[in-house]
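Per reviewer request, we include the raw input and output of the structure prediction for the construct analysed in the revised manuscript.
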Amino acid sequence: MSGYIGTTPVPQASQTRDVFTATASQTTFATSGYTPSFLDVYVNGSHLKNGTDYTASNGSDVVMASGLTAGDYVEVVAFNTFTTSDTVSASSGGVFSGEVGIGTGSDSLTRELTVKKNDQCDVAIVAATNQSAQLLFGDTDADNRGIIQYDNGSDFMAFTVAGSERMRIVGDDLQIGTTSNSYSASATSGLITNGSRLTLNSETGNIYKVFLNDNEASGSTGDIVGFGKNTTTVGSITVTTSATQYNTSSDYRLKTDVQPMSGATDRLKQLKPVNFAWIADGNRVDGFIAHEAQAVVPEAVSGVKDDVDADGDAKMQGIDQAKIVPLLTAALQEAITEIETLKTKVAALEAG
C-alpha cells in the first residue's frame, strides 16, 4: 500500500496497517513493526497525538497513555520511509541513478524504468496544443539519434533514425524517406503509400529499386505478385528458377460465347507501327501511337486521348502491346491459309 490523503487511512498507499480490538484497560499493542515518528494511530476513528496520547519508540509496541475500554477499535498505520536521495524535485527536476519501478511490486528490476500493471497499461506523453510529444533515444554525445514524435499541430507521427527523419504517417499516408505525400517524378528517394498509389523514388544507382524473391523449392513456380479487382484475382507475376512470367486472366471458365476471329488481316492493316523518339531522353524506338492503336485494338490501350486531371495535368495513355498478339496470330493464320490456297492452285496449274 502507499500513503494516504485525508483523516483516515485508505488501503492504497505505501504503508503497513495493523488492526486491534482492545481488552479492558489494555495499553500496549504489539504491531508488525514501524519506524518511530512514521506512523499514525487511531482509536475508534480518532487520530491520536504521538507523545501525548501514546508513545511509540521501540519499533514494535504502541503504548497508550491510559487504558482503553474493552471493544475499542485500534488502527496503527506505519509508513515506509525514504531519504531525499530517493526523490526528485518537482520544480527543478533531477536524475535517478538507480532503477525505477512503477507498479512492479516485489519484482526484481532489470531495466532502468519499468511500468507494470496486470491489466491494460498506459503511459502518456502529453504536449501543449500544436506542439510535439516525443520519445528520444541516443547516447552521451547526442540524446536525439532516434525519435518517435507525434506532432499535435499537423497530426502526424514521425520516426527518426541516425538523426534524420526516415518515416512519417499522415492520416492514411505512409511516407518512407520523404516528407511529401504527393507523387513527384523528380524526387530522388522515398516511398509513399496512400489510398490509390504506391510511389517509390530512389537514387541508389545500379541496384534493384525493388527486389522480390521466392524461396520455394527448386522446380516449383513461385507466385511473386498478385493483382485483383474487387477481391477477384485478375493477374499475377510468377517465377521459376530461370524465368519470369507475366500473367493476365485467361482461364476458359471465365469466358463465354467463344468465337473464332475473322477479318484479322483487314484490322491488322489498319495498325500504324511507327519509329519515334521519346521526348524525355531522345531514344528512338519502334512502337505505336496509343490512340491510333486504340481505334483498332481497344483492349490494348488504357486512358483517353488528350485527357487531363482535376488540376489540368495530362493523364497519359498507355499500351499493352501483348494484347495485339491475338490479332497478329489470326492475321498470320489468314495469310497462311491464303498462301496454302495459292500454292495448291499453282501446283495444279504446273501439273496441267
